[in-house]
């Protein structure tokens, strides 16, 4: 019997022609931070956005969260245009954003009680404990933020976000301020939790390897102001990849090279691509970086500096 065709995944986030402008000082017109931004995030999908500082990444995430509004365009979540914040969209910020006078448990409980105001105290605590255990903070329930390390604070923030069981998880570089070991540990936690819960996720990051590890697709933003989506990269590494083994896959270095080339060169020279091709920012091209036939990952080992990238282009 022939296999049934795959059913298209439901689009949980639809960003359509989004633009954000801010007024210039002295009533001298406006500056467009980004414009014509369009992409989708399917149910259960993990999408990362990469771009240099100033391209409006955090502004875009704030619009998705309902904390800011677009100058034009639309954001549709689960079939409805958003008009403000919602408990269906949880945010993990770059800083932990915990209330310092509350314990880890009560920081999470505050969110849970907002989501389910009719629950008993026992039900709230039981639900919170589930997510405290999930991020491996068992035993730290009664500690206040001042008594927690940076990584532990971020774990509380992640537990709080997951505890309200949102349709969408939005993350603004949540691990960027952490040391490498803590960051790696939390990345592993996030991979495990998102897989277990089929969580739809959108994350901003500057870390290429983080994007390769976590994302199903990676949205590339050009430099700001007047930033655009350059292209959308489909992750060609297999599902189930881990930090310890993803570099062994033959598509790892082609993927990494493609993203580095974007950050080093294409993000700032994108105007030439627009003029040289029929480019539609509302329907950005799709890239699928993969190893050439007959080559191995070791043969495509890249250098990470800009000069090596330039040399490779010139040869």
Shape: globular
Q: What would the average pLDDT be, to the nearest integer?
A: 85
Number of helical elements: 9
Spatially, the strands of the biggest sheet line up as 6-7-8-3-9-10-11
**Series of H and E elements:** EEEHEEEHHHEHEHEEHHEH
Poorly predicted regions are: 1-5, 296-315
State the helical fraction.
25-40%
Give the DSSP E fraction (strand runs of 2 or more residues): 15-25%
Task: Report what the structure shows.
Helix content is 33%, strand content 21%. Mean pLDDT is 85; it is low at 1-5 and 296-315. The protein is an alpha/beta fold. The longest helix has 18 residues, at 180-197. The relative contact order is 0.15. The strands form 2 sheets. Strands 6-7-8-3-9-10-11 form a 7-stranded mixed beta sheet, sandwiched between helices.
Could you give a short description of this structure?
The chain is an alpha/beta fold and 315 residues long. The protein has 9 helices and 11 strands. The strands form 2 sheets. It has a 7-stranded mixed β-sheet with strand order 6-7-8-3-9-10-11, with helices on both faces. A 4-stranded antiparallel β-sheet has the order 2-1-4-5, covered by helices on one side.
């Amino acid at each position: 019997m022939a296999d049934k065709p795959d059913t298209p995944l439901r689009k949980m986030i639809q960003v359509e022609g989004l633009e954000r402008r801010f007024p210039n000082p002295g009533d001298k017109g406006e500056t467009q931070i980004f414009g014509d931004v369009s992409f989708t995030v399917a149910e259960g999908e993990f999408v990362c956005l990469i771009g240099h500082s100033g391209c409006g990444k955090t502004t875009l995430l704030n619009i998705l969260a309902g904390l800011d509004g677009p100058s034009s365009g639309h954001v549709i979540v689960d079939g409805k245009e958003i008009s403000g914040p919602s408990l269906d969209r949880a945010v993990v910020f770059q800083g932990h954003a915990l209330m310092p006078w509350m314990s880890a448990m009560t920081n999470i409980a505050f969110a849970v009680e907002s989501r389910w105001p009719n629950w008993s105290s026992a039900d709230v605590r039981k639900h919170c404990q589930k997510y405290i255990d999930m991020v491996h903070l068992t035993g730290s329930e009664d500690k206040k933020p001042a008594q927690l390390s940076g990584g532990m604070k971020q774990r509380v923030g992640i537990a709080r976000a997951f505890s309200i069981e949102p349709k969408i998880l939005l993350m603004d570089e949540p691990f960027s301020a952490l040391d490498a070991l803590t960051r790696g540990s939390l990345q592993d936690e996030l991979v495990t939790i998102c897989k277990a819960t089929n969580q739809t996720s959108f994350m901003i990051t500057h870390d290429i390897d983080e994007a390769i590890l976590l994302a199903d697709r990676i949205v590339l933003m050009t430099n700001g102001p007047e930033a655009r989506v350059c292209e959308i990269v489909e992750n060609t590494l297999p599902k189930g990849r881990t930090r310890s083994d993803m570099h062994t896959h033959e598509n790892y270095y082609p993927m990494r090279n493609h993203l580095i080339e974007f950050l080093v060169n294409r993000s700032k020279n994108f105007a030439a691509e627009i003029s040289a091709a029929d480019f539609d920012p509302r329907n950005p091209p799709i890239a699928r970086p993969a190893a050439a036939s007959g080559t191995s990952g070791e043969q495509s080992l890249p250098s990470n500096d800009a000069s090596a990238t330039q040399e490779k282009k010139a040869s």
